[in-house]
């Protein structure tokens, strides 16, 4: 389709930046992002484009008796109004693993905010007003909001007639998936325990709260297909779900990644993608959809809220004897990533500790609460919150130092996981704990530092001026966690990279083309570094991510530097070999080193490992390009046994430890986190600046859920009470403390460059460390996140 | 309605503006300036922060009609804005201050190329890149406008000053540490420059 557009472009970096892996090179998209020129999905623009709007259910569980769109259709400026009846093919549902999510509601809505109808108009406000004229008659149904109502004898089934591959092993159709893990004999081992502690823990529903709202542009093509510019975490996963419901072959749905304003798991699922395509194909005009923040809270899945029951035993000298736990995750109305979250929650429920005798059960419910799925930490976060609280309880009961107690039971390389899988690369859990404990503590009473009375900005309550230090008590807490890296349980997890090397203007340049979603993490920075290291070039061009190249897998599970970084490395090595082959053919007779020495590409030249220059790459290539596209896989995994949970399920593990220092105004229940120190093993820091940025960002999301973040769902109506940044609070710069970071680099021999996926681990232990510090300050038990003032004052 | 105002030193006009449209919408969708961001559209996140007659405001909360005849600086004009301020006062970080009148009378120069590394940036923009303060970058434009304004009034802010000044800008990626680093870096570079000039 002709016409002016604003869409993503190549990013070329070179000249000023020539460093390879291990250096803190700067982002290739940095300049565009600080000048406002970077094209985010909500910035897409096309001449003559229309605006789409989604009408969502105002109730959580109801039959749809009727939908009347006639008034909306009559509205001036409206081009199309679509409901379920307008869907073009027999495929009407989509989903990451289970295709249980209707593109538009059919006969029934299962959660508050479910899409029911779509409008396209020439102005977003016109679309919104027209949507408001659509009349929907609902017949309310009872809501399922927790385990008791989901499994009650007369419970309505959230999904009738389930035929997915989990239905055969779940005890009730309102359970999405169940994963037990049995190893050793927990009851027998419990007899050796001198102390036993148990607890019930509640983890609130967290939102990813990425800042760039769900948005994108669908442009109808002349071939009957569609070009879709969108922000997502995995283009090819979207494509597989989009094409069938449009009735198009995948090659007619051409997806390009536009700028992604954060993701954190919230863009693994489809949001506006299909809706924009449907409207574009119906109207034969480009259609842009941009959610506002209110709609964004309904437009993506959240972190599973959870209830967790734990029992641990230990001998009086501090050795864990056994662990039993039961984890109930609320998956909400649609499956999303719930099965995989269950697998993580159960297989990582012991934490980074040696416990040979365990009895574990994790389930995810179907309910009428908002759908829950992926968020940074993915099932490991909820468990970490609970087992770390248990560790502190045990240490207290045994009269041991909480850090020393953890170190005594810390796993290490060679430890067998509860799944029977050995940990076969470094697991420096005790060392991480030692490091955070050894860090200097922030000085006491920092609010007096300026010497002119109390600086209230350094106190709980801040500029609200609620205390000048009276009633303020300091507390210190520790926590450590374990996260898996990459897709687990036998998933064929691969990534693809295309690399082209050619000489332009006498200078060798590399172009890297992958479908990896750059969501802010800095994957493209690292790809350019890898290309420089492997190909000896300075100038690297990053092609926009699209579906014209093979899948890169998801930007999630801490996997992209490992997987697409690994794919870029792998393809670069193959490109280098092709270049060297050409060199051998052309120049081999002139110098024996071509046949005998190990050859590298460095500084635009072919050199021996001894540093002798054999040829310019420009002379070797002589105007020809080397261009390869190759897939890369991590080592295979296998599913967990459905009865015992045994299996080589995970690729790699990632560890971080936190020390939190808090000050609590015990009279008002206000908490100020003073410092959150982190130590993390990253295997190899490909870009140290970005590594530290990831660790600090992940830590802050853990802090948020500790003291302020929760989507409140009314237990009577299953309606969301706080879908806005006014009512759903995320940490501001005033809420966030200094975050000193200590990075270890213990290589994993199985991983590219020895690196360890790192994005999620810091989100795990941050929350329990803050909770532990508040408990330390107040002496309260505190078994729920987020901690609210009333939990501290008992009011 | 028709709205006429000055954006980054140039007169701009928008026709057929619906009365409910925000300044943010007009900038992004009618004037081709999508740099100001739309993260919440309810005045909570600061991603749409612009200078309105020199004062930082959430452009999502300003009705387009309110801007008639007034001066707006967005992230797209920040580099030029800082450059002109520096030429007037010899102080690129803005640390030497700009009067309201000066801000109102500011005019942009022709647009720089947008090819990337060689673009002319203001000190705060360069500091954000150098300090690693940009991840997804969606909060960045608003933070840049707010931080630039802070340094204009306060050439060596304490950490508490920086936190207070940027407390209206949400960032979900960085944990703010590198944003603090960036503002400290811009302030330090400003001091060095001033010292170098013997001022």
Automatic annotation (TrEMBL), chain A:
Residues 1-15 have a biased composition (Polar residues). Residues 35-142 form the Aldehyde oxidase/xanthine dehydrogenase a/b hammerhead domain. Residues 1-25 are annotated as: Disordered. Pfam families: Ald_Xan_dh_C, MoCoBD_1, MoCoBD_2. One of its GO terms (molecular function) is oxidoreductase activity. It comes from the Bacteria. Gene3D superfamilies: Aldehyde oxidase/xanthine dehydrogenase, a/b hammerhead, Aldehyde oxidase/xanthine dehydrogenase, molybdopterin binding domain. SMART domains: Ald_Xan_dh_C. PANTHER family: XANTHINE DEHYDROGENASE (PTHR11908), XANTHINE DEHYDROGENASE SUBUNIT D-RELATED (PTHR11908:SF157). This is Carbon monoxide dehydrogenase. It comes from Streptomyces chattanoogensis. The lineage of its organism: Bacteria, Bacillati, Actinomycetota, Actinomycetes, Kitasatosporales.
TrEMBL record, chain B:
It comes from Streptomyces chattanoogensis. This is Oxidoreductase. Residues 1-78 form the 2Fe-2S ferredoxin-type domain. The keyword Oxidoreductase applies. SUPFAM superfamilies: 2Fe-2S ferredoxin-like, CO dehydrogenase ISP C-domain like. InterPro entries: 2Fe-2S-bd, 2Fe-2S-bd_dom_sf, 2Fe-2S_ferredoxin-like_sf, 2Fe-2S_ferredoxin-type, 2Fe2S_fd_BS, Beta-grasp_dom_sf, Diverse_Oxidoreductases. One of its GO terms (molecular function) is 2 iron, 2 sulfur cluster binding. Keywords: 2Fe-2S, Iron, Iron-sulfur, Metal-binding, Oxidoreductase. Transmembrane segments: none annotated. The lineage of its organism: Bacteria, Bacillati, Actinomycetota, Actinomycetes, Kitasatosporales.
